[in-house]
# Entry
Amino acid sequence: REKVTGRAIYASDVVVPGMVHARVVRSDVAHARLVDVDVRAALEQPGVLAVLTGVDVAWLPCPRYGHIF
# Structure
């Protein structure tokens, strides 16, 4: 009944003090090869705490099915 009436609580409804959000941005060009990523302009935007690129997370283990980004 809660789901039908819209009263059910889902993970996206949870707000935690100090919570931040992440956004994945991908190339809009199929099969493109990135030569360099300049994140300086993004870091200057209000509210931006960090910008991570593939180089920053290359050390993370890659599961068999591939990266999630």
Remarks:
- DSSP finds two helices and no strands in the chain.
- Residues 20-69 form one domain.
- Residues 2-5 form the longest helix (4 residues).
